[in-house]
Amino acid sequence: MGVCLRLLGRFEVRRDGAVVPPAAFGGRKVRTLLRVLAVRQPDLVPHDVLAEALWPDRMPVDLATNLSVLVNRARRAAGSPDVIVTGSRGYALGACSTDIADLLAAVADARAAGEEHAAVARACASGLALWAEPLPEDTYAEWAHGPRERLRRAHIELCVRAARAALGLGDPRAAVACAGDAVEAEPLDESAALVLAEALAAAGDPAGALARLHELRGRLNDELGIDPSPQVQRLQMALLRGGAEPRPAAAHAGPLAFVGRDDELAALRETTGAGGVAVVVGPAGCGKSRLLAELAGTWPRVVITARAFLPERAEAWSLARSLLREALAVDAAVVDLLPARSRDALAVLLPELGGDPAPGGESLRALLLAGGVRLLEAAARDGALLVVDDLQWADPSSVTLIGSALARVPALTAVLAHRPELPPTVRASLVADRQITLGPLPAAAVTALVGDPALAGEILEATDGTPFAVAEVLHGLAGRPAPDPGAATAALVAELGRAGQR
């Protein structure tokens, strides 16, 4: 049977089926060495990589000798000199099987099986039978973070594929169990949440399916600041229609026509055309991003765009990094015009600039602000338009940079967009020539989208009039033959409108 390593769950080494007692290895580092080699099998692991994993705090004086001692102990305990192979300045796991290799092989078999549900189910069952927490002894070890995440993703993939195979085999309850495990392991995984909702609906629980999709939408918005994929939205609309299969995209399945914002777009063009700064304010779904895109699409010169994201709000300079990188793309030579200390400071955010290590603390902050403003000033000289979206999620350091640039560079042309929840102190720090507030779409705009005043009236009554909520209704109606206002359509529009507002 040879030597086998178990890394899923409590670490074990088995020789011909019998567990090798931990004391036989003569220390924990020998067992750690085997785990490091196992997660990289069959690759050769260099001495320095092994050293960082085994001695993260203090490197031994004679590294090669210390590693050789550990390798010899591992070979003696395993009872086989072939369990570890010696290479040029490194070692590799040799004649030894591992449960993680078997798990990854099961994933490969499930992928190769394609749409053959029975074969997929068998492959997934063999992999899931092996599953336990990977490398639990190394939970906080830096070297184990990557392998643990890779194995965790493999487990989620097996659960999702097993759930889809169970649905294909007509066993929705088994599909619910597998998909539920995947969602529990990763609540933000859309594929897992999607198959769980499909399984719940197939098992006769459409309300539960809608609840799972609603939870996913909330998590994605709260934690990542994004909307779910079109597949999730189509399934949600299908369930709201009573469980019907999602219809092919039709009249309103794509992006909406740009209507109802002509006056706002004209105001933006007037302000930016005169070299000014405009601020666009409105709630989520009111069409701020679409308005900015329409303006940028007609700007005659370079457009520098950046967008803040909720998960990066706690990361200092995250928005500034994106913004300055875009500015450098306009003219990379501008870096040569910066003072050396400012250039070195910017290299902290943009490592591609190189340079010597910059000072820390307030000195670094001051240099970053000065260098960032100089870069944006250079872009202003070239007539670039600066567009920043979702400013309410920007980190404080990046907001300070943008505010400094607007105050100190009169020639800077910019459009900033944010939701009303932007703190008043931040709003006051942003110098602007004009503020544009977006509200609901006017009735004439919705009528232009639908082509039917009566149906447009029902949609406006069922929604808050924001473009996103209107789009949800129109996507839900897509594929229906000529919507006819009436009791049935009104009820459907009302249900879709509530979903759009949610």
In summary, what is this structure?
With 502 residues, this protein is an alpha/beta fold.
Structure notes:
The protein is of the alpha/beta class and 502 residues long. The protein has 21 helices and twelve strands. A five-stranded parallel β-sheet has the order 9-10-11-8-12. The chain has a four-stranded mixed β-sheet with strand order 3-2-1-7. It has a three-stranded antiparallel β-sheet with strand order 4-6-5. A hairpin with a 5-residue loop joins β1 and β2.
Defining key terms:
502 residues; alpha/beta; 5-stranded parallel beta sheet; 4-stranded mixed beta sheet; 21 helices; 12 strands; flat
Structural class: alpha/beta
Number of strands: 12
Specify Rg, calculated over alpha carbons: 29 Å
Widest sheet: strand ordering: 9-10-11-8-12
Portion in strands: 5-15%
Average pLDDT taken over every residue: 85
* Helicity, as a percent range: 40-55%
User: What oligomerization state is this entry in?
Assistant: single chain
**Uncertain regions: pLDDT < 50 for 5+ in a row?**
243-253, 479-488
Question: What would you call the shape?
Answer: flat
Count of alpha/pi helices: 21
Largest sheet: 5 strands, parallel
Distance between the termini: 58 Å
